[in-house]
């Protein structure tokens, strides 16, 4: 089963470079490392979200997502390898469909808030979007597979939907934007 870390403080990054899974050294400011860092940050925020009281199905989905994000990070750390499979994107598509069907149709923009769990899901969503932007930028410089970009795109959408689900989990609702249009009675 692959390499295991036996030493954390190696001091090999003191000069501003870091090692990839293929033993190549790259700048810690490279697009690849930015994308990797964003995926790691996203996974960490999902871990924080998992400390909240959640419906069992949402919890199981988020745990599975954490494993897929680790695969995505592994793929980013080993140029040319494919660890995140296209089926992972299909799983998110199915979850999006299932959870969307349970929610009322959006009538207005919503603010990132409500319950603590929903607010954390929105933080995860924004980090997923940043990770997606860095993966897109990396893909413009180097050849990468489609699944990482697609996965992050679907995941950010799913996290938005899950925030809505989590706001309703305790009987609440979305936090709606107090728009000028609504204050005027809906006139465009």
Automatic annotation (TrEMBL):
Its EC number is 2.5.1.-. It catalyses: 2 cob(II)alamin + AH2 + 2 ATP = 2 adenosylcob(III)alamin + 2 triphosphate + A + 2 H(+). One of its GO terms (biological process) is cobalamin biosynthetic process. The keyword Nucleotide-binding applies. Keywords: ATP-binding, Cobalamin biosynthesis, Nucleotide-binding, Transferase. Residues 8-165 form the Cobalamin adenosyltransferase-like domain. GO terms for molecular function: ATP binding; corrinoid adenosyltransferase activity. It holds the Pfam family Cob_adeno_trans. Residues 1-22 are annotated as: Disordered. It is an enzyme of class 2 (transferase). Homotrimer. Belongs to the Cob(I)alamin adenosyltransferase family. This is Cobalamin adenosyltransferase.
């Amino acid at each position: 089963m692959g390499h295991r870390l036996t030493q954390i403080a190696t001091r090999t990054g003191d000069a501003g470079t870091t090692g990839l899974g293929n033993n190549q050294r790259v700048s810690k400011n490279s697009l690849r490392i930015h994308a990797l860092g964003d995926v790691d940050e996203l996974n960490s925020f999902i871990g924080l979200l998992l400390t909240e009281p959640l419906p069992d199905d949402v919890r199981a989905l988020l745990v599975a997502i954490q494993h897929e994000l680790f695969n995505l990070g592994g793929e980013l750390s080993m140029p040319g390898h494919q660890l995140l499979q296209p089926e992972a994107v299909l799983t998110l598509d199915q979850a999006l469909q299932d959870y969307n069907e349970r929610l009322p149709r959006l009538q207005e923009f919503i603010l990132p808030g409500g319950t603590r769990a929903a607010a954390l899901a929105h933080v995860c969503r924004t980090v997923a979007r940043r990770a997606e932007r860095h993966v897109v930028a990396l893909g413009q410089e180097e050849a990468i597979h489609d699944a990482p970009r697609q996965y992050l795109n679907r995941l950010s959408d799913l996290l938005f939907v899950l925030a809505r689900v989590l706001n309703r989990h305790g009987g609440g609702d979305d936090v709606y934007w107090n728009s000028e249009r609504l204050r005027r009675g809906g006139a465009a």
